[in-house]
Design a protein that fits this description.
mainly beta; elongated; eight-stranded antiparallel β-barrel; 14% helix; 35 strands; ten-stranded parallel barrel; 6 helices
């Protein structure tokens, strides 16, 4: 027996056949999906000034990679702008968000270029994370893409197609968020312990308070360690403050602090600060500050500041400031600083990259650009504007220098040979060198009436009456009149004044001098050897004969540069 469906199926087919034959196939409406918007890239403007030996492109790339953002081409990005200024021995980083106040950090830079790049990246990215974390994490999601239907599709088909194409839940486009913003972890607040007493870590009262502890007053028999101290921390041997020390930090051997805030570090052997020091630092052997120092740094052997020093820095053997020193730098042997404004004093050598003030050394003074005074046995300056007082005074650019010494030389100063004759029948040749204003004169002279060679040395000053053509020279000369086979006690001193005129490659000069001749054995020798005119003679009770007379002289000078 056949089932009812066997007969029902042909009947249904015959019933719908006319409609099927006349109907045209209806194509589904043409639906085009709008392109899904690409994730919005976050960008940050990064400006770098005075990069030194750092690669600005490398620094920008490191910051952008760490924040997972792009470097903005315009002066202001979606996250604002970073202004990085490399200053002498430090960096200043300013973050300017689109909304809110600017945030600034200034720190000293390490010596290594790679370490400098890492430090700048670390500080810059943390400034941005702290200020822009809400922006990074709270950007709204983009709306779901809407369907776009062609105009040829019937309205009913549009409705059906839209219903079929609509997802069960709205599509969400995820905007990438900087991984660093999500990784920011709040540092636990420090617990304040008014008084802590202990033996050695962890046998101390403050260790019972938690992970981060700041003590008011801490006393430890052997060693103490905490995150900070407000008023005083005293330990028998070693005292360590991981973050800061305010007030007094004292230990029999070693004190260490992350930084010193309005405080004083005293270590029997050494006092160390890993950051800036504001106050004082005293070490029996070593005082060391990794950051800037404002106040007093005193050490029995060496006082060292890696940043800038404002105040007084004293070392029994050596003092060193990598950056700028302002105040007093004193060392028993050597004092060194990047630049100095004030007084630099050393028993052996004083060295400054730039000096505004006074530099005094028992041995050698060395400086780059100088405005002030150098006082030492040997004074050396690259660019001198001031007074050099010593046995030897040297400079590369001495146009503004006033050197006073036995040997004065400037690389860009005058150098000339000259010869002259005088009314006392003495002929001489000499070498002249020095600076624009002060010069040395070394000479050899002889006379037909004097049996010995004369050797003379002089120090003079020059003034340009008409620049390049007419000048005035005043010189003090001293001659040893009996050098070879004669009496070394016999000498002739002169005070000379002359006017010089430039005649092409040669300068001619003429002037007058006052002679003072001293002998100890023969009162007539001056009259016989130098034919003094209008002379006056003086005799001491000890048998010393002095003859004074005026003289005229004239000569020619050939500049060598």
């Amino acid at each position: 027996m056949r089932s009812p469906g066997f007969f029902l199926a042909p009947a249904l087919a015959l019933a719908v056949a006319p409609y099927h034959a006349s109907a045209q196939p209806v194509a589904p409406p043409s639906v085009e999906s709008a392109p899904v918007p690409a994730p919005v890239p976050l960008d940050l403007a990064i400006e770098i000034e005075g990069s030194g030996d750092l690669d600005p492109t490398l620094v920008r790339g490191a910051i952008a990679a760490d924040l997972d953002v792009q470097v903005a081409a315009s002066p202001q990005g979606a996250l604002g702008a970073l202004l990085i200024s490399i200053v002498p021995q430090g960096v200043r980083i300013v973050y300017l968000p689109l909304e809110g106040a600017a945030v600034e950090r200034t720190v000293a830079l390490p010596a290594s270029r790679d370490d400098r790049t890492r430090l700048i990246t670390f500080i810059a990215t943390n400034l941005v994370r702290d200020q822009a974390s809400e922006i990074l994490a709270g950007l709204p999601a983009l709306p779901p893409p809407a369907a776009v239907v062609t105009a040829a599709a019937p309205a009913a088909a549009v409705t059906a197609a839209a219903s079929a194409a609509a997802p069960a839940e709205p599509a969400v486009v995820v905007v990438p968020v900087a991984r660093a913003a999500a990784a920011v972890v709040a540092t636990p607040s420090a617990v304040h312990v008014p008084i802590s007493i202990g033996m050695i870590p962890p046998l101390a009262v403050d260790r019972l308070a938690g992970r981060r502890v700041v003590v008011g007053v801490g006393i430890h028999a052997v060693a103490g360690a905490s995150d900070g101290s407000r008023y005083a921390s005293i330990s028998g041997a070693i005292d360590t403050k991981h973050e800061f020390a305010a007030g007094a930090q004292i230990a029999g051997a070693l004190v260490i602090a992350g930084r010193v805030d309005d405080g004083l570090q005293i270590g029997g052997a050494a006092a160390l600060s890993r950051g800036p020091t504001d106050g004082g630092q005293i070490g029996g052997a070593l005082a060391f500050s990794l950051g800037d120092l404002a106040g007093l740094q005193l050490a029995g052997a060496a006082a060292v500041t890696q940043g800038n020093t404002t105040g007084i820095q004293i070392g029994g053997a050596a003092t060193y400031t990598r950056g700028h020193s302002e105040g007093l730098q004193l060392a028993g042997a050597g004092a060194v600083t990047g630049s100095m404004r004030g007084l630099q004093l050393a028993g052996g050598a004083a060295v400054a990259g730039r000096l505004e003030g006074v530099q005094i050394a028992g041995g050698v003074n060395v400086a780059g650009d100088v405005r002030g005074l150098q006082l030492g046995t040997i004074n050396v300056a690259r660019r001198m504007r001031g007074v050099q007082l010593g046995v030897v005074n040297l400079s590369e650019d001495g146009d503004g220098a006033v050197p006073i010494g036995v040997i004065n030389y400037s690389k860009n100063g005058p150098l000339a040979v000259e010869g002259w004759v005088d009314s006392s029948r003495v002929s001489a040749v000499g070498l002249r060198h020095g600076t624009r204003y002060v010069h040395n004169l070394w000479a050899i002279g002889w006379s037909p009436d004097h049996e010995h060679v004369m050797v003379g040395a002089g120090l003079g000053v020059h003034a340009a009456l008409v620049p390049g053509s007419l000048g005035l020279d005043v010189e003090a000369m001293h001659w040893m009149t009996d050098v070879v086979g004669g009496d070394p006690d016999k000498n002739l001193s002169q005070l000379r004044a002359s006017v010089s005129a430039s005649l092409g490659p040669v300068d001619v000069f003429a002037g007058a001098a006052l002679n003072v001749h001293v002998v100890t054995d023969d009162e007539m020798q001056a009259s016989e050897d130098f034919h003094p005119v209008a002379a006056r003679r003086f005799t001491s009770d000890g048998g010393t004969y002095v003859t004074v007379w005026p003289m005229m002289f004239a000569g020619a000078r050939v500049p060598l540069r």
